[in-house]
Specification:
single chain; twelve-stranded mixed sheet; 1 helix
Length: 167
């Protein structure tokens, strides 16, 4: 009887902790922009350090090679049909896990925010109207997931989890 109760307890814990309604956007190393889906194969991360009470990191994702130059800046392979470069900014001395909302580096409000410096899918450039980025991990292994509304009411969802090239 004890084995049955223990098995049921373990099973109920597994079911509770794996409830899909709490998981948010799926991270399957793909990004969907409108009706196009792109496989994300590589990521890069540049730690910009701490400044004025915030920590900033720049991330690049693409379906081609991503490397970091000595500047530091990103170099993305010319065969790329999708690339995104985004900055995450968090109060304090580290990029902490959690939700980052669309923001502006010129109006720090004490919360976690992101801004996109490049978003290009099949030759079309986009800007972000609203949404959020989920972030977790520690260098060089990160998880980023996106749930964004782009210009023209285009949705972008998906994410990438894995090892990032770093500076």
């Amino acid at each position: 009887m004890k084995k049955i109760l223990l098995s049921l307890s373990i099973l109920s814990i597994i079911i509770i902790t794996s409830c899909s309604s709490d998981d948010g956007v799926a991270v399957n190393n793909q990004i969907t922009v409108g009706d196009q889906t792109f496989d994300i194969t590589n990521g890069g991360f540049i730690d910009l350090g701490e400044s004025e009470g915030t920590r900033q990191g720049v991330f690049a994702l693409a379906d081609a090679d991503v490397s970091i130059t000595s500047t530091p800046s990103f170099s993305v392979g010319s065969s790329s049909s999708f690339r995104i470069v985004l900055n995450l900014v968090a109060p304090g001395s580290s990029l902490s896990s959690g939700t980052y909302t669309k923001g502006d580096v010129l109006s720090l409000d004490g919360g976690k925010f992101f801004f996109i410096t490049l978003l290009d899918a099949d030759g079309t450039s986009y800007s972000v109207d609203s949404g959020s980025v989920q972030f977790s991990g520690a260098s060089p292994n990160f998880t980023l997931s996106f749930d964004l509304t782009l210009n023209g009411d285009t949705k972008m969802t998906g994410g990438f989890s894995g090892e990032f090239a770093t500076n």
